[in-house]
């Protein structure tokens, strides 16, 4: 196989492997030669071969198997948020809001039609911009600009693209939100894991990530997915102190649970920090199909984002912007959102209390799901639950760092279960653990 690969630079070697893969000479699962062997065959420095394999890995064309070597990647399915496809089991791993608690947009729809918006006009609805500024100004003590994107994931992708180059390092929480893992990997960036505890992102973990040369950090200030952890005031202050020495590292805060959260907003963005973005989507309280997020960023980042949201290409529909504003400024809708927030908190707390009666103590958390600690490997417990008709998500799916040990956590979405179904799940979970 070494004889088929050609090139004297990393780019040429990577392009050669890509060509062999496209022509079917290299097939998914096939092994590439060890780095030393390839370097010797091509007469290049070992670091050149290493760089070529790194480029291929960033492009998703190869996968490193450690001591087992590097193999051609196949079209492997990856974990996604939401309902699992093609299952007859009761899915309690969805992470979805309760559709019964999402406000009906029909009354607001009649109010948003108006003069059509044409090419060349401002991409942000003026009234939404004014409302968003007031909402963010209460929490962000910095000079900022508002940008509207097609959801939080779209905002994060654009924010990274305007600030980073391929192979740049990005700090991610570990365990991590699935969409953040995919966004960083598909963008060709290097994910650096930062452990999360009950107070949020850890100080030592962030400090180690900064020492590793990260250029951006993505943090969930409250209702972290999957753990439900929220930053405490003291932890946020410690993290800000660490970041104060790195003012040009881009801070992206994904405050996805904002209006539904039972916790105060605590921020990593300190006074004088030069690159930041506070992102708040509406999907958790107005519904996932309302693909809109508000990004409050420093002025320079806002200008770069504007280049990626130009009229005629990728601006967010003004009809959607108006619909969002009409709902968020409606008193009845606000009351529904407050009711939904109370419902999620109460149902999750009640489930956690019942689990504690059986010796399974779930730390206090926020969000749509519970992060349930287990005394045995989560995969084993999940398999036992499947035999009883339940489909749960194990913590292995959310792991960012490579581990030799399995996860001992399940992420369960239980807020929409009836009392009877919740009790059945608890009994089945206790039996599965034992």
Strand order of the largest sheet: 4-11-10-9-8-5-6-7
Question: Biggest β-sheet: count, sense, barrel?
Answer: 8 strands, mixed
Structural class: alpha/beta
Reported CATH architecture of the largest domain: 3-Layer(aba) Sandwich
> Oligomer, anyone?
single chain
What is the CATH topology descriptor of the largest domain? Aspartate Aminotransferase, domain 2
Proportion of residues in helical segments: 25-40%
Strand content: 5-15%
Morphology: globular
What is the N-to-C succession of helices and strands? HHHEEEHHEHEHEEHEHEEHEHHHEHEEEH
Beta strands, count: 15
**pLDDT averaged over residues:** 92
Gyration radius over CA:
24 Å
Total helices: the number is: 15
Q: Mind telling me the CATH superfamily name of the largest domain?
A: Type I PLP-dependent aspartate aminotransferase-like (Major domain)
Attribute tags:
Arc Repressor Mutant, subunit A; Aspartate Aminotransferase, domain 1; eight-stranded mixed beta sheet; 434 residues; Aspartate Aminotransferase, domain 2; 3 domains; three-stranded antiparallel beta sheet
Q: In words, what does this structure look like?
A:
The protein is an alpha/beta fold. It has 3 domains: 10-72, Orthogonal Bundle (Arc Repressor Mutant, subunit A), CATH 1.10.10; 90-99 and 333-433, Aspartate Aminotransferase, domain 1, CATH 3.90.1150; 116-327, Aspartate Aminotransferase, domain 2 (3-Layer(aba) Sandwich). 39% of the residues lie in helices and 15% in strands. It contains 15 helices and 15 strands. The protein has helices at 10-22, 35-42, 46-58, 106-112, 126-137, 152-163, 178-186, 203-211, 233-243, 283-286, 299-307, 318-328, 331-356, 378-387, 419-433; strands at residues 62-64, 70-72, 90-91, 145-149, 169-174, 190-197, 200-201, 214-219, 250-254, 276-281, 293-297, 370-373, 390-391, 393-394, 409-412. An 8-stranded mixed β-sheet has the order 4-11-10-9-8-5-6-7, sandwiched between helices. Strands 12-15-14 form a 3-stranded antiparallel β-sheet, with helices on one face. The chain has a two-stranded antiparallel ribbon with strand order 1-2. Helix 14 (378-387) crosses helix 15. It is globular, with a radius of gyration of 24 Å. The model has no long low-confidence stretch (mean pLDDT 92).
């Amino acid at each position: 196989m070494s004889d088929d690969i050609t090139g004297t630079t990393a780019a040429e070697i990577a392009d050669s492997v890509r060509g062999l893969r496209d022509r079917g000479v290299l097939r998914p699962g096939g092994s590439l030669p060890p780095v030393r062997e390839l370097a010797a065959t091509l007469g290049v420095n070992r670091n050149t071969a290493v760089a070529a394999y790194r480029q291929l890995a960033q492009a998703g064309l190869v996968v490193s198997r450690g001591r087992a070597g590097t193999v051609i990647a196949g079209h492997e399915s990856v974990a996604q948020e939401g309902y699992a496809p093609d299952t007859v089991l009761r899915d309690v791993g969805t992470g979805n809001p309760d559709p019964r608690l999402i406000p009906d947009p029909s009354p607001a729809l009649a109010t948003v039609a108006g003069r059509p918006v044409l090419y060349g006009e401002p991409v942000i609805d003026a009234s939404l911009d004014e409302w968003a500024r007031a909402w963010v100004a209460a929490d962000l003590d910095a000079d900022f600009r508002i940008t509207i994107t097609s959801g939080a994931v779209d905002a994060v992708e654009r924010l990274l693209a305007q600030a980073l180059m391929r192979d740049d390092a990005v700090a991610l929480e570990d365990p991590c939100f699935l969409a953040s893992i995919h966004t960083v990997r598909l963008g060709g960036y290097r994910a650096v894991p930062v452990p999360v505890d009950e107070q949020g992102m850890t100080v030592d973990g962030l400090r180690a990530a900064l020492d590793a040369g990260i250029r951006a950090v993505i943090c969930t200030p409250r209702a972290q997915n999957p753990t439900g952890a929220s930053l405490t005031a003291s932890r946020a202050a410690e993290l800000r102190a660490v970041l104060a020495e790195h003012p040009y590292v881009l801070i992206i805060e994904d405050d996805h649970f904002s209006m539904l959260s039972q916790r105060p907003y605590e921020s990593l963005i300190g006074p004088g920090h030069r690159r930041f973005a506070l992102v708040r989507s509406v999907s958790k309280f107005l519904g996932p199909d309302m693909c809109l997020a508000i990004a409050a960023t420093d002025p320079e980042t806002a200008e770069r984002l504007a280049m990626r949201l130009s009229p005629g290409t990728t601006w967010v529909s003004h009809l959607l912007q108006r619909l969002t504003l009409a709902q968020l400024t409606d008193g009845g809708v606000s009351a529904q959102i407050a009711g939904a927030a109370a419902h999620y908190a109460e149902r999750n707390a009640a489930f956690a209390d019942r689990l504690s009666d059986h010796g399974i103590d779930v730390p206090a958390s926020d969000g749509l799901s519970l992060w349930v600690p287990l005394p045995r490997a989560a995969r084993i417990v999940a398999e036992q639950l499947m035999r009883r008709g339940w489909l749960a998500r194990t913590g292995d799916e959310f792991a960012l760092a490579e581990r030799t040990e399995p996860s001992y956590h399940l992420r369960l979405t239980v807020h929409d279960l009836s009392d009877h179904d919740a009790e059945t799940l608890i009994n089945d979970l206790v039996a599965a653990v034992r």
